[in-house]
Amino acid sequence: MLRYPYFCRIYKEFLSCWLESGIFNLGVWPKKIHGTAQRNNEYEVQEQRDQTGTQEKHRSQDRDFEAIAKLHIPVMVDEVVRCLAPQKGQIFLDMTFGSGGHTRAILQKESDITLYALDRDPAAYAIAEQLSELYPKQIRAMLGQFSQAEALLMKAGVQPGTLDGVLLDLGCSSMQLDAPERGFSLRKDGPLDMRMDGGRYPDMPTAADVVNA
């Protein structure tokens, strides 16, 4: 069954042909009508395929994020959400986004929340970008340090005094500790690096540089 937009398209084409010819016998246009209907049916099938593809993409993103979330369990999620008490339309800043556990809990608590996700770790920023696809127009990913938060917020168009809450969950997490190549772990062999954003600042001293100075 054709949906309303497609029916309107058929009707407009039929009406245009009818007015141009001056013929009032509806029976002379079946081929034109059927051809248009067939094209719109094909369009509808393609649209359904596109929608199916989009839904599958979102399901895949959900699975990817759930896999990431399992790597790190955020602390005191219920307490954080209860303390912030998010209300519809409010704006929050998560200054230590990490793997997004607190951010997602806040967004699931109430609708129409805008949340600015700040982290200096490019790996965390990539997760924030991915999560923003699941929550379009709600998550604004920001890559930077605490000292850059004000400048990044101003660049994003946030006016002073408009934040309804700020969350800071300081320190390392399993995102860093479980990656031996980043040099945070005392349990796994790896270079003594310990830089949160060494890839962005290759000249920044590593922990090995500091220890051996």
UniProtKB/TrEMBL annotation:
Basic and acidic residues composition bias: residue spans: 46-61
Region of interest: Disordered: 40-61
Family: Belongs to the methyltransferase superfamily. RsmH family.
Keyword field: Acetylation, Methyltransferase, S-adenosyl-L-methionine, Transferase
GO molecular function terms listed in the Swiss-Prot or TrEMBL record: rRNA (cytosine-N4-)-methyltransferase activity
Domain of life of the native organism: Eukaryota
InterPro entries in the cross-refs: RsmH, SAM-dep_MeTrfase_MraW_recog, SAM-dependent_MTases_sf
Protein name: Methyltransferase-like protein 15
A GO BP entry: rRNA base methylation
